[in-house]
Design goal:
The chain is mainly β and about 325 residues long. The chain is built from 1 helix and 28 strands.
């Protein structure tokens, strides 16, 4: 039988008090309380600065300390052209989108963002590129659509799924000036989330028209099935890369606070959002993400939450 020492290289230490600064994976026996304990690094959500303009069906890009939020619909379902930039604590106004819209997709970073698709009164194929202060027109999507998924960068973007005149499986790739057709999703769906890059993308959740937990992985030409979400939902947000993604919020039915981490093959449930919501925006990585905007059965939201890893001491019990 393999011992803990053979795995970790050290024996389990007996101590009268818990270590002051335990490391991830460290295990010890507390002789005072007579219990076995261990240290684990887990993610948790905390409050960030509110958006200046509350919006649902909003899109996002960037990182937790340099985030970008754009488009969406305000109270009364009014399409918005507002752009806001996050510095890790507060949102400030950026340059407005050329076309006000909601249910659009996004990709890139705060100083090099990409916005595409969406709806005003008709479904759009517009693409816009952000340089950190202003949006300019880019090449149009081949298929106009709303409630699509997005991933990648401004010069290597990925758009997939959504609703045109029907639910679609189309995938398109952006090279910085034009969109070209990629491989279709295995399951056509709208209101899904995306993460990753153009050659290693991730699509998950959505509605087909039934709410789905399906996950698919893109290799630059074709989609293949990945591990299913634990909680099927639509209108959720995503962050991260194909092998380390985060999915959060959505509608189950009922607004969801569920958060899950993807390791490249399976989703693991993690700490819930403080505010259950759907049609929210997301940005960042699996270990440092942003959730912002969205809606509940009542108001359109301005709330922002930040996801970060934090050490947690666990007590081992027998059953």
């Amino acid at each position: 039988m393999t011992t803990f020492k053979e795995i970790r290289g050290n024996l389990i230490k007996s101590t009268s008090t818990d270590p002051a600064n335990p490391q991830d994976g460290q295990i010890w026996y507390n002789s005072t309380s007579q219990v076995l304990k261990g240290e684990e690094i887990l993610g948790a959500w905390s409050s960030g600065g509110n958006l200046n303009t509350a919006r649902r069906n909003i899109s996002g890009a960037g990182t937790q300390t340099a985030g970008l939020a754009f488009g969406g619909a305000t109270t009364g379902d009014v399409p918005s052209n507002a752009t806001e930039e996050y510095n890790g604590s507060a949102w400030t106004a950026g340059g407005n989108l050329g076309t006000a819209r909601y249910a659009l997709a996004g990709a890139g970073i705060q100083t090099s963002g990409l916005a595409f698709g969406g709806i005003v009164t008709t479904v759009l194929n517009n693409t816009e590129e952000y340089d950190g202060s202003a949006w300019t027109a880019g090449g149009s999507l081949g298929t106009a659509r709303r409630q699509l998924g997005g991933a990648g960068t401004q010069t290597a973007g990925l758009g997939f799924g959504g609703y045109s005149t029907t639910v679609v499986a189309n995938t398109e790739e952006y090279d910085g000036s034009a969109w070209t057709a990629g491989g279709n999703l295995g399951t056509a769906r709208l209101n899904l989330a995306g993460a990753g890059i153009q050659t290693a993308g991730l699509a998950f959740g959505g509605i087909t028209p039934t709410i789905t937990a399906a996950t698919e992985e893109y290799n630059g030409s074709t989609w293949t099935a990945g591990g299913s979400l634990n909680t099927a939902r639509q209108g959720l947000a995503g962050a991260g890369i194909q092998t380390a993604a985060l999915g959060f919020g959505g509608f189950e039915p009922g607004d969801s606070s569920a958060t899950e981490e993807y390791d490249g093959s399976a989703w693991l449930s993690r700490s819930n959002l403080a505010t259950a919501r759907n049609s929210l925006g997301g940005a960042g990585t699996q270990t440092a993400a942003l959730a912002f905007g969205g809606r509940t059965p009542g108001p359109v939201l301005a709330n922002t939450e930040e996801y970060n890893l934090a050490p947690t001491t666990r007590t081992f019990t027998t059953s």
